[in-house]
Write a structure and sequence with these properties.
The chain is an alpha/beta fold. The protein has a single domain (about 5-370), classed as TIM Barrel. Helix content is about 40%, strand content about 15%. It has 13 helices and 11 strands. It has helices at about 5, 25-30, 55-65, 75-80, 90-100, 120-125, 130-150, 175-180, 185-195, 215-230, 260-275, 295-315, 360-370, and strands at about 35-40, 70, 105-115, 155-160, 200-205, 235-240, 245, 250, 250-255, 280-290, 320-325. Strands 1-2-3-4-5-6-10-11 form an 8-stranded parallel β-barrel, surrounded by 6 helices. It has a two-stranded antiparallel ribbon with strand order 8-9. Strand 10, helix 12 (about 295-315) and strand 11 form a beta-alpha-beta unit. Helix 7 (about 130-150) packs parallel to helix 9 and helix 10 runs parallel beside helix 11. It is globular and about 60 Å long. About 45% of the residues are buried.
Amino acid sequence: MGLAAAIGVMPVAAKPFASPPEDSLDRLAKAAGLIGFGSCIGSTKSTSVSGSFDDAGVRAIHQSECGLLVSSNEMKWPVLRPDAASFAFERADRIVAWGEQAGMKIRGHTLLWHRADRMPKWLVNYDFGTRPGHEAERLLREHITTVCGHYGSRLFTWDVVNETIDPATGKLRETVFTRHLGPAVIEIAYHAARAAAPSAVLVYNDYMTWTEASARHCDGVLELLASLKRAHLPVGQLGVQSHIGDGRCGEVDGDMRFDDAAQRRYRAFLDAVVAMDYRLAITELDVSEDGTPADIAARDAMLADLTRRYLEFMLSYRQLDYVLAWGMVDHHSWLQTRGPRADGMLKRPSLYDPNYAPKPMRTAIAQAFRTAKRG
C-alpha cells in the first residue's frame, strides 16, 4: 500500500494535456522574466514513499502548474546503471516522454553524483584493473557519452556534477574516481558532457545554505567554481538546491530564520558566484520543518513565510533563470523518509497537501513571482 492510500487519500484523475493556465506558477514565473517553474517527479519507490509519477493526481498538478520537469532519481547511477555493462533507461524514458507530450522543458539530473554513499555498490567495488586511471576515465566518459547521447537535444540542461564538495572540509569528496583520477574527474566529466551535449547548459549542483554551519561548504563551492573558470571548463550555471528550513540537509543543519545576518552571508556567497559570470537556478526547492508546531495552519504559515522571503531574495538576482520544486505534493516528498516528526504527523514540505489541494506555500511562491524585483 502506498502512503497516499495509507493516510486515506486517493489519486485524482489526470487532466488532458494542455498549456498551464494563466495563473499557473509557470506562467507567473515567465512573467517575472524566468524561463519557467517546474518540479521533479519520479517513478522510483523509496522505503515509504511511492513513486509520484504513478500518481495521477501528481501528474495533473504538474500539468496545471509546471513548464519544466526533472526526474528525481531515474537518471542517477544507482537506477540507470544496474551493472558496468548495462543501462536501464526505461524509467527515465517514460518521464521524459510524458513531459515532452505535456510541452515541458526537461532537465537532466545527474551525470555524476560525486559522493561515495550515492554510488551503486558495483561501482564502489569495481575492479579497475592494472591501469586504474585509464579504466576510470573510460568508464566515466562512456557513461556520460551514452546517457547524453541517448537524450540528445531533448534535454535543455544537465546537472553534470552533483554535490562534490564535502561540507565538513570544503574539499572535493573522495570517491572511486578521485582514488584513480584525482581532481581531474571533474574536468573529465564536463568535457565529456560538452562533447556529448553541445547545446545543453552544463550545471554544478549543490545544497549549500545561509547558516554559519554552511560557511565552509560555501567557501569550497566558490573555490571549485573558480577552479572551473581557471580551467576554462564549459560550466554555465550553479544549481542552488534550496532544501531550506529547520532540519538537516546532508551534513548541515538549517534554520527558519533567514534574518538580516543570514541574508548578508548568503548574498556575499551569491555575489561571488555571479561575479564569476555564472548563472543561477533554484533546482530542488522544499522546506524542512523540524521543531515546527503540530497545528497545521500555524505550520503552513511558517513554511510559506520562509518560502516567500527566500524567493524574494533569490529573485533579486537577474542571473536567476528558473525555479524547480523538489516535489509538488506532501506525501510524496523525500523528506517523509528523513526521520519522522516527533508527533507522528505527516510532514508538509511541499506546495500541495495529501488531498491535492494548494497550500499557503503555493500562494507564497505565486506572490513572490508577481512582485519580483529582478536585478
